[in-house]
Task: structure prediction
Amino acid sequence: MKWEQGEESQNIEDRRGQSTKRNFALGGIGTLILMLVGAYFGIDPRVINQFIGVVQNVAPPAKLEQKRDLTAAEIRIREFNSKILRFTEKVWDEQFRRIGKNYTPPKMVLFEEAVDTGCGNAPSAVGPFYCPADQTVYLDPTFFDELAGKLKGSKAEFSQAYVLAHEVGHHVQNLLGYSRMVDQKRRTESKTEYNKWSVRLELQADYLAGVWAHHGQAQFQFIEPGDIESAIQSANAIGDDRLQKNSRGFTSPESYTHGTSAQRVKWFKLGLRTGNLEMMREIFEMPYGDL
Result:
């Protein structure tokens, strides 16, 4: 991925190298996101899944203290994430203007080990996630170490950008009211029915990641040979069916919350091909069996 020529976002905060003296208490996260886990990446999804959907009241964040300087590699990681975030800001600002709306970009926080958020406290094990309460994407970059070992160079970078684009897709959903719609379903529907709406939300975020890649490539020409294939490979690895099969040997479709591998690949590829923001509503309108 050709990202070095991009501008850096002003909406990023790097908390790595900092620490608090308060003990960490496991809290909630708003949404579990594109998790590049499972047997393909060598991470047991049961370690991740135990954190899903847990929301607790937490104490106010303790004051952060600098404990070490960042390494050159960590500084480069910050630059990468900052530039990817800026690519998303430019694309979504233009797309929102086309539909007569203003785009307010999310913030991004880089952290290590654990982080305080508007949705509660979260450990690194949950992977990257978006918190709608404070409109912030949270990321411990070490989450991508396993991915970098599987996909070298540009391929790993674009797969990381795809994950970040998915998280920013959740922010787009939040701004356009889709997240609120699904949250209302959580209060009124059964667990099984709510899970179906959660799947719609996740597939829609995959679609929006594709829309971003479509317009980002047109504006910035950052995609290199093999990049798209690596993103599709990643999406195929993290469907509910594959994760459940790898972790326990069988699947339970009624418990799916993110969609199957085939569904995730389908909607990412459709967003990438069409670049049509307004088509996102079809995911919420079509019969569930047609997803």
Observations:
- The first strand starts at residue 12 and ends at 14.
